[in-house]
Amino acid sequence: MTAGPDEERSGLTALARGLSAPKGFVDASLAAPAPGTIRLLGGIPAPTALPVEAIAKASAQLWQAPDAALASLQYGPARGSDALCDWIAKREGVDPRRIVVTNGGMHGLALAVLTVVERDATVAVDDPVFPGFLWALEVSTTRILPVPVVADGFDVEHLARRLATGARIAAAYTVPDFHNPAQVTLSAPKRQALIELAERYGFHVIVDNPYRELRFGGQDQGIAAFNESDRAIHVNSFTKTLGPGWRVGWLVLPDHLVDPVTRLRNRLDVHTSSVTQAIVERLLTDDDQWFDRVVAGAAALYRERAGVLVGALREHLPGALDVVAPEGGLFLWPRLTDDTVDAEALFRRAAAHGVVYQPGEYFAAGAADPRRHSSARHLRLSYSDRTPEELREAVRRLALAF
Asked: Which of 192, 214, 259, 279 is the most buried (most CB within 10 A)?
């Protein structure tokens, strides 16, 4: 993206001038849809899945305990509060000293990039890719090596071939569980193979895993390959389980990266809100089973909604879309089966009929013309924050667009 004369005279840094305009999630065409439009846009938790009453109770308890309240209004450790780090470490199966609490998942991704990706280095990324990672990556580089996402996740063999023929990367990025947008899960053998590849060629693996808790089918592929490696940076958050407004996430770091990340953190935002951490701590630690019940309830809700959406698509659009039922997460990634269907025109007609979604082309990584990319033949449909009735009506409107 080239800066114009006005930008060059504005006093902006080259970094600030070079940041791309986000597509899709905040695209102007989607920002203000017509009244009554059903939005299948974002990975937003269902309001009924968020533990509002428990949050209110924990908040009140904090302010009723003067010592704890005063402590929460002071500075805190850059790595995060001891109690919260201990809880996360126990769940991840690692030493608490390897945990750094962040301001949500995007903050964790940015810290990872700033720590292990040199300026203008190349990073291997999912293709299709979560666009938010490309935004985070821009603080260091725009050079990417797209790696196809196939039925069992990130194509490790493809990356191995590229590396064997001379490609060199600073890091590889993937969403291993319930991929955004492709909904697939990286198999356990490929998780291990990716780590072995990182160890052989000396790059880091940035593992973005916010949907892992929201499994409602299939087999858990495990996280030991990531958390036991000194080449993996495991990024997670409470965004999809307790709500994005918390802005609380975490990194599981190899030992040699804890101090560098902490030093970097001290030069940026110092630490995550002590008040927020104190409330989250109370929620998680007062009852050892509480969080498990929250995520189990959310997963059951999303199972129902995913089933409704898949069933409605198969009923109203038989043969028009190749639909694979998800095993978890918040998204469906159906593919247009008829190559003569104009995906861009379909999106416009769907919006006119009162349903909007994310066109697949927004998730293409590295294609010169995203509309010619295989992702452009897909629709990303989010079912998480829509009721079953809304999902059925959305599909009815989508059928009209067809």
From this structure: 214
